[in-house]
Recover the amino acids of this structure.
C-alpha cells in the first residue's frame, strides 16, 4: 500500500511537470500533452489500485510506466526530445520482480 | 499429396504450416488473420506435400464467406487429407468443427496444437481415447516450440484415417462434442494464470481500458516517428547523394537513373525504418494477445456507429495495408456491416501514407511531428466512424452483433515477431522495386519531355489543367500532379515530390501542408484497394467508394484551409 501511494504521488508529480513543460509555464519547456496523458493514465491506474486495494493495478501500471520510460529514453537518444516519462524507470524493478512472481 | 488445414480461428494453423514447411507465412495471435486459402509446399522424407491453409472457422452453420471458402474447397477439390488443427486449450468448442468435418468422408489427422499452453494450465488430454472415439490419429503439437512436428509429419505421410461419421443437427453436435471433451479431458486447475488475470483486470477495466489503449497507440507513434527518424534521415541523405552523383553524368540514361529511378525510389525507401517500426509495434501488440482485448474493449463503442467488433479487425489491419484489410471483411457475417466496413476502410491510414505525413510533418511541424502524424490517424478513424454512421442510417440500415474469443497472453516469440514484421515490410519494399520504380520513370519522362524543362513538360500541362480544381486550397500544380500520381500507389506522392525536386516550404504554408496531408489521408483509394473493393462488394460500391472518399477529402481539405487562414 505504501509503495502504491508513493508511486501514485511520484507519477502525479511527473504528469504535472510534463503538463507545465508542454504549456511552457514557469520556465518549463519541451514537454508534450500526449506524454502527459500517458503519465496521467499511469497515475490513474496506481490510484485505482490504491482505492480498490488490488496489486494487479500496481503491477500493470508499473509495466506501462517501464515501457513508456524505455521509449522516452530511446526518443531522447534519437531526437533529443525530452519527456519526464524517462523518470518512470523507477517502476522497472517492481515490474520485473512481479513479472517473475506471477509467471 | 494435398493436405487441407482446417480449424477454428487463432488455433495456430499458419504457425503449424510454417513449422511443417519451413515457410514464412504471416501469423497473428488475433482471430481472422487468414481470410483466403494459402498454399505452402514442403518435402517430407523426400515426398512433395502441398498444404492448403483454409480460413479459420467455427462451424459450417453460418453464411460467412470464409466458411464458404472452406466448405467449397473440401467439397470440390477433395484433398487427400484433412489436417484438423485443434486448440488444446478449448477442446469442446474446437470439437464442434471436428465432428462436422467427419461428414466429408476425407481421411483426417488431428493436431492437438498449443499443447504447451494447455499443460501450463494443467489441462491433460487423453489423445489415445480421443483417437479411438473419432477414429483418426491425434498428435500433440506446439507449432511455436516445434513439439510433435516430426510425429505429425509421419502421420501425414501415412495418410491418416477416414473418421467415424457424426451426424445430427447443431444441438446434437454440440452435445456430442461436450460429451467427448468430458471423457478425454482432465483439468487440474481451472483458474487463469495469475499474470493473465492481472493484465485482463486492468486492460479491460471499465474506466482505464480506453486510456490505456490510447496510451499504447501514442507509444506506437512515438516509436514509429521519433525513434526511427535518425535512420530515415541517414537513408534520405544517402539516396539524395547517390541521385545527384548518378545524374551528374551526361546523357538521358543517367538523368533517368539519377533524377528518376534513384530520386523516386530512394525517396520512398528512406521511409522503410518508419514502416518497419510501425509493423514491429503492431506485431508485438498482436502476438502478445493485447489486440483482441482492444477490439473487445471498443466493441460497445463501435456498435454506436452501426458496426461491431468484427469490423475492428479489418479496420486495424487497414493501418498496415487496405487491400488485405478489405479481404479480411470476409469474416463478417452480416452483409451490410461487411459493405460498410469495406467502404470506410480506405479512411484508415495505411502505411503507404506514412511517408507523406513524415515528410510534411518534418518540414512544417518539426517539434510536434508525432502529434501531427497521430492526428492524421485519429482524424481518419473519426471520418471512418462518422461515414459508417451515415451509411448505416441511410443506405445500409440494420443491426448486428458478434462473438469473439480472447486468446491467452503470450510473450511474443522473437522468430514469429521477426517473420510478421518482415513479411509486411517486404511488401512495401517490393512495391518500391516495381510499381514505384515504374512510376518514377513515367514521372521523370513526363517532367523532362517534350521541352527539356519541367515548365515545358507534359507534367506541367497535366498539372496546370487540373490545378484550378485545387486553387481554393492554394496548392501548386506540382503538388497537384503528385496527388494524381498517388492514385497508382500512395507512396508515389513522395516519389513524385522527389523526382520533381519540389522545394516544399517555398510553395506552401503550414496550414496548407496540413490540408494537403488531410487530403492524401482521405482522397480516393489506390488502384489496388479499388480493385479489392470491387472484387469483394461489387463495381457499384467501388465507384461509390471513389466518389465518396474524393468528396469527403475535398470538403475536409477546404475546411482545414479555411480554418487555417483565420490564424
Amino acid at each position: 500500500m505504501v509503495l502504491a501511494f508513493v508511486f501514485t504521488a511520484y507519477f502525479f508529480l511527473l504528469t504535472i511537470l510534463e503538463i507545465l513543460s508542454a504549456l511552457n509555464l514557469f520556465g518549463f519547456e519541451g514537454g508534450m500533452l500526449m506524454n502527459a496523458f500517458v503519465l496521467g493514465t499511469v497515475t490513474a491506474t496506481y490510484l485505482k489500485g490504491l482505492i480498490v486495494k488490488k496489486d494487479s493495478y500496481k503491477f500493470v501500471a508499473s509495466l506501462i510506466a517501464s515501457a513508456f520510460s524505455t521509449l522516452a529514453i530511446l526518443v531522447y537518444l534519437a531526437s533529443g526530445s525530452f519527456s519526464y516519462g524517462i523518470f518512470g524507470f523507477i517502476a522497472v524493478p517492481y515490474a520485473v520482480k512481479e513479472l517473475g512472481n506471477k509467471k | 499429396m494435398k493436405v487441407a488445414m482446417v480449424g477454428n480461428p487463432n488455433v495456430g494453423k499458419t504457425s503449424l504450416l510454417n513449422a511443417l514447411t519451413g515457410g514464412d507465412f504471416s501469423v497473428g495471435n488475433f482471430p481472422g488473420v487468414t481470410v483466403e486459402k494459402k498454399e505452402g509446399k514442403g518435402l517430407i522424407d523426400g515426398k512433395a506435400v502441398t498444404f492448403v491453409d483454409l480460413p479459420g472457422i467455427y462451424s459450417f452453420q453460418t453464411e460467412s464467406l470464409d466458411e464458404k471458402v472452406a466448405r467449397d474447397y473440401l467439397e470440390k477439390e477433395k484433398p487427400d487429407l484433412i489436417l484438423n488443427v485443434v486448440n488444446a486449450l478449448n477442446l469442446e468448442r474446437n470439437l464442434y468443427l471436428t465432428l462436422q468435418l467427419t461428414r466429408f468422408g476425407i481421411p483426417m489427422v488431428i493436431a492437438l496444437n498449443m499443447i504447451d499452453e494447455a499443460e501450463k494450465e494443467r489441462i491433460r488430454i487423453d489423445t489415445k481415447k480421443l483417437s479411438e472415439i473419432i477414429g483418426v490419429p491425434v498428435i500433440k503439437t506446439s507449432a511455436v516450440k516445434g513439439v510433435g512436428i516430426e510425429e505429425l509429419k509421419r502421420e501425414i505421410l501415412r495418410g491418416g484415417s477416414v473418421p467415424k461419421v457424426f451426424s445430427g443437427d447443431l444441438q446434437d453436435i454440440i452435445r456430442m462434442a461436450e460429451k467427448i471433451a468430458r471423457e478425454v479431458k482432465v483439468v487440474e486447475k481451472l483458474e487463469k494464470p495469475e499474470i493473465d488475470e492481472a493484465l485482463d483486470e486492468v486492460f479491460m477495466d471499465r474506466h482505464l481500458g480506453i486510456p490505456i489503449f490510447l496510451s499504447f497507440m501514442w507509444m506506437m507513434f512515438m516509436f514509429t516517428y521519433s525513434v526511427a527518424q535518425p535512420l530515415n534521415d541517414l537513408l534520405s541523405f544517402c539516396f539524395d547523394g547517390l541521385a545527384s552523383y548518378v545524374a551528374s553524368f551526361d546523357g538521358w540514361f543517367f538523368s533517368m537513373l539519377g533524377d528518376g529511378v534513384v530520386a523516386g525510389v530512394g525517396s520512398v525507401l528512406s521511409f522503410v525504418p518508419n514502416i518497419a517500426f510501425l509493423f514491429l509495434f503492431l506485431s508485438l501488440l498482436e502476438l502478445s494477445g493485447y489486440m483482441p482485448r482492444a477490439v473487445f474493449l471498443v466493441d460497445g463503442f463501435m456498435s454506436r456507429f452501426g458496426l461491431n467488433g468484427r469490423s475492428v479487425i479489418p479496420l486495424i489491419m487497414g493501418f498496415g495495408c487496405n487491400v488485405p484489410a478489405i479481404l479480411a471483411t470476409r469474416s463478417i457475417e452480416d452483409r451490410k456491416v461487411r459493405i460498410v466496413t469495406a467502404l470506410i476502410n480506405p479512411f484508415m491510414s495505411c502505411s503507404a501514407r506514412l511517408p507523406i505525413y513524415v515528410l510534411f510533418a518534418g518540414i512544417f511541424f518539426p517539434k510536434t511531428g508525432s502529434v501531427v502524424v497521430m492526428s492524421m490517424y485519429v482524424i481518419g478513424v473519426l471520418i471512418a466512424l462518422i461515414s459508417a454512421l451515415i451509411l448505416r442510417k441511410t443506405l445500409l440500415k440494420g443491426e448486428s452483433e458478434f462473438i469473439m474469443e480472447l486468446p491467452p497472453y503470450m510473450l511474443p516469440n522473437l522468430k514469429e515477431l521477426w517473420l510478421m514484421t518482415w513479411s509486411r515490410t517486404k511488401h512495401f519494399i517490393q512495391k518500391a522495386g516495381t510499381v514505384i520504380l515504374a512510376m518514377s520513370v513515367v514521372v521523370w519522362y513526363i517532367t523532362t519531355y517534350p521541352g527539356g524543362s519541367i515548365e515545358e513538360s507534359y507534367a506541367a500541362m497535366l498539372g496546370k489543367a487540373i490545378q484550378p480544381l485545387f486553387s481554393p486550397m492554394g496548392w501548386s500544380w506540382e503538388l497537384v500532379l503528385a496527388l494524381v500520381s498517388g492514385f497508382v500507389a500512395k507512396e508515389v506522392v513522395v516519389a513524385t515530390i522527389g523526382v520533381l525536386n519540389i522545394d516544399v516550404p517555398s510553395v506552401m504554408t503550414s496550414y496548407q501542408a496540413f490540408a494537403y496531408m488531410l487530403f492524401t489521408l482521405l482522397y480516393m483509394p489506390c488502384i489496388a484497394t479499388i480493385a479489392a473493393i470491387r472484387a469483394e462488394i461489387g463495381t457499384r460500391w467501388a465507384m461509390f467508394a471513389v466518389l465518396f472518399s474524393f468528396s469527403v477529402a475535398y470538403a475536409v481539405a477546404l475546411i482545414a484551409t479555411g480554418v487555417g487562414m483565420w490564424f
About this structure: The two ends of chain B are 69 Å apart (CA to CA). Chain B touches chain A at residues 193-195, 197-199, 201-203, 205, 207-208, 211-212, 214-215, 218-219, 222-223, 226-230, 368, 370-371, 374 (CB under 8 Å). The domain at 2-187 of chain B is CATH 3.40.50.300 (Rossmann fold).
